[in-house]
Amino acid sequence: MAVAIAAVSFASCGNKAADAAKATADSIRIADSIAAVEAAAAEAAAQATDTTAVADSAATETVAE
């Protein structure tokens, strides 16, 4: 009976190092994905600001004429 309990205990604890490495890799992958999305959003916001500034200056020049 004790041998069966020991066998089940060892089986349930198996391969924790591989699971930890997989979890770390998943965390890094997710963090990289989030960083890429945030960078794309920041770039899009910067481009939108640049486009608005050009449009505003063009409108100002038209009104001034």
UniProtKB/TrEMBL annotation:
The protein's name: Uncharacterized protein
Which superkingdom, per the lineage?
Answer: Bacteria
What is the protein's species of origin? Answer: Bacteroides reticulotermitis JCM 10512
